[in-house]
Design brief:
The protein has one domain: Metal-dependent hydrolases (TIM Barrel), CATH 3.20.20.140. It is 26% helix and 22% strand. The chain contains eight helices and eleven strands. The strands form two sheets. Strands 9-8-7-4-3-2-1-10-11 form a nine-stranded mixed beta sheet, sandwiched between helices. A two-stranded antiparallel sheet has the order 5-6. Helix 1 crosses helix 2. The longest helix is centred in the middle third of the chain and has 12 residues.
């Protein structure tokens, strides 16, 4: 049976150096409940240590947490990677860490705490998460797909750290599952801004780094269940599945 799922697929936690310290697992889930979200993607910069804790905080609620990451390629392009399970995310984390060099400077880039579902700080990630990996855009998208994930070009309407901002275009041989735009732009306006990208699926998400931003960007998926496979069907408009942005009508 197909039903509507309200999704915000790009949310950071306090682990991201640019994320607010109030973005700990319990607070995120509480905000998602108040926003009536059904599915969320947890996507910290180049890291995944808080994902499992957010999943634990969501246990017993109706919220599905998709394990994810926002990966910075060597071209300094941000890519959202979303998966069904932690095993697939762990494989991508290894792929990222093998080419992510440098150590964090907390006084410059910010704190990177690992916080469990009981609001306890259980460690810190000392890697330079704000940096770029040594992995190319092509390599990264290919590896995400090899592990059955969704590869989404992040915030294409931004001048920095987007595929269009960094490269000026989307390489035709890079197989993105969707292109993300910010809630400031919205899907309808993005369609007008980028008519040459009419063949791509556009989604909107919050890219929340602060608790009050959670849910500000969302997309409504009409699908059988909240899985990556079903989302791919919806993004392609297949088998009766489809999606709509918050500024689009059915």
């Amino acid at each position: 049976m197909i039903r509507e799922f309200t999704c915000d697929l790009h949310i950071h936690t306090c682990l991201s150096p640019c994320g607010d310290l109030d973005m700990y697992p319990k607070a995120i889930i509480a905000k998602c409940l108040s926003e009536r979200l059904d599915v969320i993607g947890i996507c910290d910069h180049n890291a995944s240590e808080n994902v499992g804790h957010v999943m634990e905080a969501a246990r017993g609620t109706a919220i599905t947490v998709l394990p994810g990451m926002e990966i910075t390629t060597k071209e300094e392009v941000h890519i959202i990677a979303l998966f069904d399970n932690m095993h697939e995310l762990a494989a991508i984390q290894t792929f990222v860490y093998e080419s992510l060099h440098g150590m964090n400077r907390e006084d410059i880039f910010g704190c990177q705490p690992i916080v469990n579902a009981d609001n306890e700080v259980v460690g810190f990630n000392e890697r330079l998460l704000i940096g770029a990996t040594g992995r190319s855009l092509r390599e990264t998208v290919g590896e995400i797909h090899r592990h059955n994930g969704l590869a989404i070009a992040a915030h294409i309407d931004r001048e920095s750290f987007s595929v269009i901002g960094q490269l000026g275009f989307i390489p035709p041989d890079i197989r993105f599952d969707a292109l993300e735009v910010s809630c400031r732009t919205g899907i309808r306006k993005a369609r007008e801004m980028y008519p040459e990208l009419a063949d791509y699926a556009f989604i909107e998400s919050s890219d929340a780094h602060f608790i009050n931003d959670v849910g500000r960007g969302k997309v409504r998926f009409h699908m059988g269940n909240p899985t990556i496979f079903e989302m791919k069907l919806a993004l392609g408009g297949k088998k009766g599945r489809f999606f709509r942005g918050s500024d689009e009508t059915c």
